[in-house]
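Tokens in:
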């Protein structure tokens, strides 16, 4: 499980600390826009996170734009040559495409936690 994350309404906020400013700050992951929050105390940080999520959702609904980042459903991975070869062999042995094998493996990680 990752540390330094907040969750609210299905959204994730990354959290960082600035020693110079003596403040914790973060950004909402998965939004099209850069949405940040900060707080000096944990409660203040969490409240600010909740506030910006709610505010962003309301703004998007008013402007009739998507709240979340849109995902194309494709991305590049860079396995080592040996792993690439092993994946290809495994896909052939199972009678599926390399894409299908990787899709099933990733789905297993996400849905079978």
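Residues out:
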């Amino acid at each position: 499980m990752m540390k330094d994350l907040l969750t609210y309404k299905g959204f994730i906020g990354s959290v960082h600390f600035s020693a110079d400013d003596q403040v914790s700050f973060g950004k909402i992951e998965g939004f099209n826009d850069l949405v940040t929050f900060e707080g000096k105390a944990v409660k203040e940080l969490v409240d600010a996170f909740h506030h910006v999520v709610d505010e962003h959702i309301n703004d998007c609904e008013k402007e009739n734009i998507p709240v979340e980042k849109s995902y194309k459903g494709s991305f590049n991975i860079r396995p080592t040559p040996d792993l690439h070869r092993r994946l290809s062999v495994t896909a052939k042995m199972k009678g599926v495409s390399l894409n299908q094998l990787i899709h099933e493996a990733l789905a297993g990680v996400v849905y079978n936690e």
